[in-house]
Write a structure and sequence with these properties.
Blueprint lengths: L1 E6 L2 E6 L11 E4 L2 E5 L2 E4 L1 E4 L4 H18 L1 H4 L6 H16 L10 H19 L2 E3 L4 E3 L3 H7 L5 H17 L6 H7 L4
Parallel strand pairs: 2-4
Antiparallel strand pairs: 1-2, 3-4, 5-6, 7-8
Helix pairs in contact: 1-3, 1-4, 3-4
Length: 187
């Protein structure tokens, strides 16, 4: 599959193919125009020639951590309720992390990485719990976090968004390329 991208009066192309030798030439020339081959291109999400979801998830989590760092004063404030803090997480931080998640195909490792990210943030929001038996503070367990956080977990949100996107594509006209890719009728 060949993608051609144009920005800042520069045109580049990228080849996505299981054949590693596909499009080996490093530039294409037509008339006075030259197209440079790239292995990665950022548009809405980062596209790579091997189409790695794992790298995209790493980038999104890194952006989410940066967003978290920006909102650190809000998340650690004692003036805001835990309900407000969880709304900040859902509306701001989760939106940054899940941008373009409809195209992700998750492995168990990636699901776990996403859950770890979410649980660490929820622990920051909900704080510690006092153990009445040992009379000391401890971190909340995952089950306790799930009970306190009333919204669906991050993996469930991703899967529901993917299903919603698939339904949207299924209702498109049959002549649309994305619809043909979904039903497997490519030319």
């Amino acid at each position: 599959m060949l993608f051609v991208f144009s920005y800042d009066n520069k045109t580049k192309y990228m080849v996505i193919s299981p054949d590693l030798n596909a499009g080996q030439s490093h530039s294409i020339k037509t008339g006075n125009s030259s197209f440079e081959r790239v292995e990665e291109f950022k548009y809405l999400r980062t596209l790579t020639d091997h189409n790695s979801t794992q790298e995209e998830i790493k980038r999104r989590l890194k952006s989410g951590n940066a967003c978290c760092h920006s909102a650190q004063n809000l998340l650690s404030s004692s003036l805001l309720s835990k309900n407000i803090k969880s709304k900040i997480y859902r509306t701001i931080i989760l939106s940054v992390v899940l941008y373009g998640c409809e195209t992700w195909s998750l492995t168990l490792r990636e699901e776990r990485r996403l859950r770890v990210f979410e649980n660490s943030l929820l622990r920051r929001i909900f704080g510690s719990k006092r153990d009445e038996v040992k009379m000391e503070w401890r971190k909340l367990h995952n089950e306790e976090l799930n009970a306190l956080y009333s919204s669906p977990n991050i993996v469930w949100v991703i899967k529901s968004r993917r299903m919603r996107w698939a339904g949207h594509v299924a209702h498109m006209r049959e002549t649309r390329g994305i619809h043909r890719a979904l039903v497997g009728k490519l030319d």
